[in-house]
Task: inverse folding
């Protein structure tokens, strides 16, 4: 009996395209990543555990994942507002604002890092006003958060924007005729529609932030146990020719990111699947 | 709730959607706004709901002016063509929505809301669907949910924007009869927007025929159908044969002598156009009087309850459509290519400005 791997389809080329997809993904994603695991496996389990649980490593995980998460949440909130303004209102300079949103995408991360460090340092444009208030941004974990928020913004705006654009105005009008005020309409009608896209956008912003290096190192100050992110720690280990130590930390980041991404996907699936089954 | 629309004008840019429209609707009436797309009927409905603001003119509901009142204060139920259900909510939550957003002081208790939802779903015959999501329902069911949702807030006025427009013919027919029965039970003032003349004539107490932002005629379905005020209404309410000039010299002479078309004040260049419905044309095999047009049978369509005969006038070459009962068709037994004589039982003569 033939194994039925595919549904009969009128579209040709299933075998060819699937074959290519698997090959391409292996080449670009799977093989390099498995190299990471292979290299790490030269460590014994105990050695591995020791490398990844040093206080310095743990502090760096906390900063990397914590700041990325907080940054993603901040972007979720303000990115939605920006998407809302861009979709719902017409104002002069709109296309300029629209283009500005993409800037964190386009800017080399090192440039972003240097710029942020310059304006948030105690004598910088913004830093000089924050410093007397006792708020230090540059060279502290707060600076890391600023950088990670900066680079994640476009992801949220660009995923929420099209969904907001396609949102049926009649549904909002229906809510209004039923007596809902603006806030109730927003909360009960618009947010549930945006939620899946918002989750995707935040997940992407988070993933990007976890892997961010260039913009962070300039503003973070990179003090071990305080403002050092995991990617920098990996770099440090590489500089000391500790390749297996670097890949061990890489494995931790990879596994954690994967688990978080999976969790977000499941959450998203759960929030859409309920009412989308035709 | 009685409605008074007082000289309302609405423009979108330079385009005038409603041109000085006035209308009065009695309490408990079901009125149809009928017209081709772009005639302004939906805009008028949206102005009544408060979804649009008129540029000029005023709206009175129950005698009080509401032109500047917020939508939520008008207590108006609105049903959209494409249902506009909340797709992330169950049917029951959709229906309950209007009650759950009430301020805490006016909001009924949770059990009372559930009771009310059950009641309304019973009214629209969808009790079994309470826990489904809109995507799991058919179009007709979705529109009934939308109606139940609109009724939940006990509106004094129900506005329906082409509610059956997106449904197939059979469901549409069922639903409009059901809507009429519902209206007779609830005695709620209703305004129905439609471009389907059959729907308007069947459901409404009165029909408002609109065209290019103006009201062309207001009347009961019988009035507008039997006595169209102008050529537009005549054409819009059903199939029609249009005879430019005259059906025959004699016939016009006859009408003149009866004074029906008031021919004495005729201005130079004004044309007279005769309108006859296909079922008001009588066929005979031989010439029986002078008021007849000789024509050749081109096609005969016997499908359905009536027979449609397409003729070609031998004088002008114009196509004429005639509708006969099956019995009459059998009596006549005309076939394609044969010559018959056409005689109008009823006709309307309108004066048209010079082309």
Result:
């Amino acid at each position: 009996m033939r194994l039925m791997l595919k549904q009969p389809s009128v579209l040709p080329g299933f075998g060819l395209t699937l074959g290519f997809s698997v090959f391409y993904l292996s080449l670009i994603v799977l093989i390099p990543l498995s190299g990471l695991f292979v290299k790490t496996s030269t460590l014994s389990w105990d050695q591995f555990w020791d490398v990844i649980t040093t206080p310095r490593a743990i502090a760096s995980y906390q900063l990397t994942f914590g700041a990325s998460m907080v940054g993603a949440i901040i972007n979720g909130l303000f990115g939605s507002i920006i998407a809302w303004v861009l979709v719902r209102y017409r104002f002069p300079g709109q296309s300029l604002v629209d283009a500005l949103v993409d800037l964190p995408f386009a800017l080399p991360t090192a440039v972003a890092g240097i710029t942020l460090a310059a304006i948030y340092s105690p004598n910088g444009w913004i830093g000089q006003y924050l410093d007397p208030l006792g708020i230090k941004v540059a060279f502290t974990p707060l600076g890391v958060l600023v950088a990670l928020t900066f680079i994640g913004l476009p992801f949220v705006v660009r995923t929420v924007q099209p969904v907001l654009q396609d949102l049926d105005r009649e549904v909002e009008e229906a809510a209004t005729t039923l007596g809902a005020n603006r806030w109730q309409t927003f909360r009960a009608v618009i947010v549930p529609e945006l939620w899946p896209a918002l989750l995707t956008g935040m997940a992407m912003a988070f993933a990007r932030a976890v892997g961010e290096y260039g913009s962070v190192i300039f503003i973070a100050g990179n003090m071990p146990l305080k403002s050092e992110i995991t990617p920098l720690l990996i770099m440090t280990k590489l500089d000391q020719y500790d390749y297996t130590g670097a890949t061990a930390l890489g494995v931790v980041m990879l596994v954690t990111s994967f688990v978080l991404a999976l969790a977000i996907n499941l959450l998203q699936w759960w929030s859409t699947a309920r009412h989308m089954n035709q | 709730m009685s409605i008074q629309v007082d000289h309302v004008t609405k423009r979108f840019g330079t385009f005038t959607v409603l041109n000085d429209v006035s209308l009065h609707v009695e309490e408990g009436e079901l009125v149809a706004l009928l017209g081709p797309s772009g005639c302004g009927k939906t805009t008028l409905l949206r102005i009544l709901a408060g979804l649009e603001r008129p540029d000029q003119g005023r709206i009175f509901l129950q005698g009080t002016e509401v032109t500047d009142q917020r939508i939520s204060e008008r207590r108006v139920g609105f049903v959209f063509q494409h249902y506009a259900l909340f797709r992330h909510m169950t049917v029951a939550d959709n229906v309950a929505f209007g009650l759950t957003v009430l301020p805490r002081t006016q909001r009924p208790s949770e059990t009372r809301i559930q009771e009310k939802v059950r009641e309304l779903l019973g009214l629209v015959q969808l009790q079994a669907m309470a826990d489904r999501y809109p995507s799991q329902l058919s179009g007709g069911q979705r529109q009934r949910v939308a109606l139940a949702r609109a009724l939940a807030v006990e509106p004094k006025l129900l506005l329906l924007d082409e509610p059956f427009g997106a449904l197939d013919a059979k469901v549409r027919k069922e639903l409009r009869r059901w809507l009429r029965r519902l209206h007779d039970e609830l005695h709620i003032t209703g305004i129905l927007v439609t471009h389907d003349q059959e729907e308007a004539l069947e459901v409404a107490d009165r029909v408002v025929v609109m065209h290019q932002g103006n009201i062309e005629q207001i009347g009961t379905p019988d009035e507008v159908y039997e006595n169209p005020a102008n050529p537009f209404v005549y054409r819009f309410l059903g199939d029609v044969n249009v005879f430019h000039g005259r059906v025959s010299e004699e016939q016009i002479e006859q009408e003149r002598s009866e004074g029906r078309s008031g021919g004495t004040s005729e201005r130079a260049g004004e044309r007279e156009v005769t309108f006859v419905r296909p079922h008001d044309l009588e066929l005979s095999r031989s010439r029986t009087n002078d008021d007849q047009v000789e024509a050749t049978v081109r096609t005969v369509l016997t499908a359905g309850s009536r027979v449609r005969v397409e003729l070609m006038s031998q004088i002008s070459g114009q196509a004429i459509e005639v509708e006969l009962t099956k019995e009459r068709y059998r009596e006549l037994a005309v076939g394609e290519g044969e010559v018959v004589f056409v005689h109008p039982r009823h006709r309307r003569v309108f004066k048209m400005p010079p082309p």
In short: The interface with chain A takes residues 49-51, 71-72, 76-78, 80, 82, 84-89, 97-98, 101-102, 133-136, 146, 149-150, 152-153 of chain B (CB under 8 Å). The longest strand of chain B covers residues 15-25. The radius of gyration of chain B is 25 Å. The first helix of chain B runs from residue 41 to 49.
